[in-house]
Amino acid sequence: MARRAKGERRARPLPPPLPPERRTVGQLVGEAIRLYGARFWRSLALGIPVVVANALVWARPSGDLQLTLLPVTALLISLSYVLAIGLVQGVSVRTRAGVVAYLLAVALFLPVPLLVAIFILPGLVWLSLVGLSVPAVLVERLGVRAGLSRGVQLARADFVHVLGGLSTLALVVVISQFSLYFVLREFADNTRMIAAGLASLVISPLVFLGSALLYVDQEARLRSAGERREE
Question: What predicted TM-score, i.e. pTM, was given to this entire model?
Answer without folding.
Answer: 0.86
